[in-house]
Amino acid sequence: MATFPPPGSVVVADWHQYKDSKEYFSKILHKKRRRNFGLLESPVMPPHVAVDTVHYKIFISGKSGVGKTALAARLAGMNIPSMHHETTGIETTVVYWPVKLKESSRVLFFRFQLWDCGENALRRFDHLLPSCKEQVDAVLLLFSFTDRTSFDDLPNQLAKWSEPSVRRVVKMVVGTKFDLFMHCDVAERDIRDFQETWGIPVQRTGGEVTDGLGDVASLLNCLAENLWHQDCITAGSASHHSQQETVTLL
Q: Which domain holds residue 84?
């Protein structure tokens, strides 16, 4: 079972509210709204400010209608489509998010490339899912609080991403449409039971996209924190393995 770092133990939580973050977050904003970045675009910092960028590929998985495209739009600060329509192929969205590491106070730009593919398209075209899984670093497993079947399907989704053939990826569960509590089909008790059984925290999202950063900060920080944590574990394992090989050769 994957281990998740305690929230705020790897990156500074709510750093977007700190004064020293303004210079960095201003580079992902335009006229007080999120700046949309193309595949070849990136935030530009002044020459005297050296900031490394780490790149990650994120696949958004879930049943049709749970809000995969809407989540990608929300995380990128774009307008959420008012009408649901099935994604006909693969859509990618680039999200930049500055993070301050807690231990070293080092600032990094996380570049998340979000991959979204319609469920029907995945069924019709066999080559799409392998393309989405190729070199993927994390998967966001979505369910809707208004669709009980999407929540009940989570164990099947987790099983698919836990097969030996799948490279190690960060798995996060996100519940969408949390604001539609009048139509909620998933109780908090169900969420607690799921978290205790699978050891995976559940993120919640919903409501209108605001001009600020607060409505996405928790999810993006959690994603950055878990990806960086996994990279540190992987780097440590590789270093340990290399040392063992050196000792064996000696």
A: 15-249
Looking at the domain assignment, is residue 98 inside a domain? yes
- Lowest-confidence pick of 35-44, 163-172, 211-220: 163-172
Quote the CA–CA distance of 181 and 120 in Å, as a whole number. 28
- Rounded to whole angstroms, how far apart are CA atoms 41 and 222? 24
- Mean pLDDT, residues 66-95 taken together: 83
Within-domain flag for 8? no
For residue 55, the cross-strand partners are 111
CATH code for the domain of 232: 3.40.50.300
Say what the pLDDT of residue 182 is.
76
Of residues 74, 77, 70, the one with CA closest to residue 32? 77
Edge-to-edge strand order for the sheet containing 202-204?
A: 90-100, 107-117, 52-61, 138-144, 170-176, 202-204
The count of structural domains within the chain is 1
The answer to whether residue 1 is domain-embedded is no
Per-residue pLDDT tens digits for 172-217: 999 998 887 777 889 999 999 999 999 999 999 987 666 568 889 9
What is the distance between the alpha carbons of residues 215 and 208, in angstroms, rounded to a whole number? Answer: 9
